[in-house]
């Protein structure tokens, strides 16, 4: 049996031909190629599967996976053989050629269970400078003062066995739920640079359904209020302010 790779990259696709080329190219350019690439496809009918078939390297394709994005991501985790799992969706791509090498070095140096960095947003063809990265602590994350951007998160596969995977009943805040579970038992290492580029467009779930996403996130954070009650209270104040802004914008 071949040696287990360092990284498993899980890419969820569904009629992704318009953007997938950038995703694939960014992985091919990585200086660290100790990688398996798992594609979880929801039944694409465009050129997506042809593009994946032509893509060289260590890959597997899970076809016709239904049930939503959380289930698709979990299917990728379950199929993974790598030591570290990352989700790089077909809208996203790595920001530089040394992302995986940098992450691997941080795992080795700090012996942590998960690593995350910044995400740079691509909006209307322009790269938006990433926000400053606040210092991470469990309480600061629970309070909404620090954040963890899903496309730039790398998790040891063994950690999923300790805390579980994505909640398949959630549509928007499944990542926040997982980081709240994971952060309780494992300290992350933060890399203060952009690791991934995320396309923000009208079809993005987080962009098209901001009010619903915020409401679901509130319900998720409430699950964990007993672990950081003061932090949750601070989050509630931030939540109310943000919801007023979103509701005002929705009326305009």
Structure description:
- The protein is of the alpha/beta class and 252 residues long.
- It has a single domain, classed as Spore Coat Polysaccharide Biosynthesis Protein SpsA, Chain A.
- Helices cover 42% and strands 22% of the residues.
- The chain is built from 10 helices and 9 strands.
- It has helices at residues 17-28, 48-54, 69-79, 99-110, 138-142, 157-163, 174-185, 205-208, 210-223, 229-251, and strands at residues 7-13, 35-41, 59-62, 84-87, 92-94, 114-123, 126-128, 153-156, 188-200.
- Strands 1, 2, 3, 4, 5, 6, 7, 8 and 9 form a 9-stranded mixed beta sheet that branches.
- β1, α1 and β2 (35-41) form a beta-alpha-beta unit.
- It is globular and about 50 Å long.
- The chain starts with 6 loop residues before the first strand and ends with a helix.
- The mean pLDDT is 93.
- Pfam families: Glycos_transf_2 (PF00535).
- It comes from Massilia agilis.
Look at the structure and name the CATH superfamily.
Spore Coat Polysaccharide Biosynthesis Protein SpsA, Chain A
**What global shape is seen?**
globular
SSE topology string? EHEHEHEEHEEHEHHEHHH
**Biggest sheet details:** 9 strands, mixed
The CATH class turns out to be: Alpha Beta
The CATH topology is: Spore Coat Polysaccharide Biosynthesis Protein SpsA, Chain A
List the uncertain runs: none
How much of the residues is beta strand, in percent? 15-25%
Question: What percent of the residues sit in helical stretches (DSSP H or I)?
Answer: 40-55%
